Amino acid sequence: MTTPLRTAEIIAVGSELLTPDRTDTNSLWLTARLNDLGIDVRAKAVVRDDRGDLAALFTQALGRADLVVTTGGLGPTDDDVTREVVAGALGLALVEHADILASLRERFARRGWPMPGINRRQAQVPSGATVLPNPNGSAPGLWIDRGAKVVVLLPGPPRELQPMFDGEVGPRLDVRSDGRRVRRRVLKITGRSESQVDEIAQPIYGPLAGGDVPVATTILATPGQIELHLAASGSDVKQIDAVLAEAVQALRAALGSVVFSEDGRSLEAVVGDLLKERGWHVAAAESCTGGLLLGRLTDVPGSSDWVIGGIVAYANDVKVRDLGVPQALLTAHGAVSEPVARAMADGVRQKLGADVGVAITGIAGPSGGSDAKPVGTVVVALSGPSPSVKTFRFPGDRKTVRAHATAAALDLIRRALIS
Question: Does the model's pTM come out above 0.90?
Answer without folding.
Answer: no
